[in-house]
Amino acid sequence: xxxxxxxxxxxxxxxxxxxxxxxxxxxxxxxxxxxxxxxxxxxxxxxxxxxxxxxxxxxxxxxxxxxxxxxxxxxxxxxxxxxxxxxxxxxxxxxxxxxxxxxxxxxxxxxxxxxxxxxxxxxxxxxxxxxxxxxxxxxxxxxxxxxx
Length: 148
Description:
Blueprint: H1 3-21, H2 25-35, H3 49-64, H4 68-74, H5 85-107, H6 112-123, H7 128-146
């Protein structure tokens, strides 16, 4: 997979999750991906416009915020529930790490069942194959949609 395709896929994943959940942790993750550097010190990809739009909204809200609750609301992080947006994003990111680890293991030449077994041992998950196939299907669909 080419770097540009991989970047598009990662950004499409984060954007789709943000649109589905309204959780801004996915926007911050996209920003983190874009700003990461390779071994030569080159940035991975430009920051997507939808991330910059979110930052513009935050800046407007933060300029009016007078309390910690208002700051959290301006950033889209305010929530009064048992499970925070951060916790839900963390669980999704774990599934994504398992998927990426299995994909890398397959690229290294492991057979699918060997990769799933190794992932389940590494991550303590009994559903690595389910995660992998569901994510692969979702990624293909996202990449297809992002190109149309």
